[in-house]
Amino acid sequence: MAHDESNRWLGDKPQGNLLDDVVRRVPVLAERQLPPYQRLLHAIWTDERLSAVCTTRRNTDHIRENTDAARRFEPLEEAAIHQLRDATLAHGSRLCADCDGRCSIAAGTQADLGTLTRFLTDHEHHGDRSEARRLYAELPPEARDWSGADLEAARSACPNRLDFARLLPQVERHLA
C-alpha cells in the first residue's frame, strides 16, 4: 500500500487530518519545505523552555530528515506558534502532556487515565496501533478499569481538561 509523504510519518494507518490543518493554518511551516514532523520540530525548538526533544524514528531516512531540519532551523514568530496551538486544540486533545496522575486521584480510581489516553493517541494519531494495543494489554487490570470513576472530576482536575467520558470508551473500543 502506497503512503503519501505525511502518512509515512504516522505509522501503519494514520487517523485524522491534524497535519493538513497545520499546513492550512500555519503556512510558514509549509514554506520551509520540510516534511510534516520536521516542521513541528521547528515549532518545538522555538520554545526556549525546552532543552531537548526525543523523537521516535523508524529508519535512517527519518534521522536524516531530522538532521536536515536542525541544520535549517529558524525560530518561528510568536504568531505562527499561536496558529499552531490553535490548530492542535481544534482537533481536541487526547492526551495531557502535563499529566501527573491528579485526574485519577480526583476520579477516585486506580485506573491510569493519563496513560490510557496516551495509548489512544498513539493508536489513533501516531498510527502505532499494535504497540498501543500491546502496552495496553501489559497494564495491570486495575490500571485499565475506569468503571465507577468520576470522569467529570477527572476532567476538572486534568491540566488539559481532557474529556475522559468521551475518550475512555474509545480506549475500550480500540485497545481492549
Cα separation of the termini: 26 Å
Query: Using only CA atoms, what is the Rg?
Result: 17 Å
| Chain-averaged pLDDT | 82
Strand content: under 5%
Specify the helix fraction band. Answer: 55-70%
- Which residues form runs of ≥5 with pLDDT under 50? 1-15
How many separate domains make up the residues?
A: 2
Secondary-structure element order, N to C: HHHHHHHHHHH
Summarize the structure.
By secondary structure, the chain is an all-alpha fold. The protein has eleven helices and no strands. Residues 1-15 have low confidence and may be disordered.
Question: What does it look like?
Answer:
- This protein folds into two domains: 84 residues, no CATH class; 74 residues, no CATH class.
- The radius of gyration is 17 Å and the shape is globular.
- Helix 1 packs antiparallel against helix 5, helix 3 crosses helix 4 and helix 7 packs antiparallel against helix 8.
- The longest helix is centred in the middle third of the chain and has 13 residues.
- With 176 residues, it is mainly α.
- The N terminus is likely disordered.
- 57% of the residues lie in helices and 0% in strands.
